[in-house]
Predict the 3D structure of the following.
Amino acid sequence: NKHLGVLDEDTADNNITYVIISAEGGYVSLLDNITNSVGRFTQKQIDDGLTFFVHDGSKRLIHHQSAFE
């Protein structure tokens, strides 16, 4: 994926998990339930176009901080 991607030859994309520490200015959601935030998602969900950042409408500067499992 051009925005966020990891390639590990020994690990399937559905087993590569991203964990959200904080999301300022909105939240991350999945396509099947865009009104609810998620705390983790997989590389496969990114590749399949199922993850979204939903902006909360604020005008503050957004800093990104992530942790990966």
Q: What stands out?
A: The chain has one helix and five strands. Strands lie at 17-23, 26-30, 40-42, 51-55, 64-68.
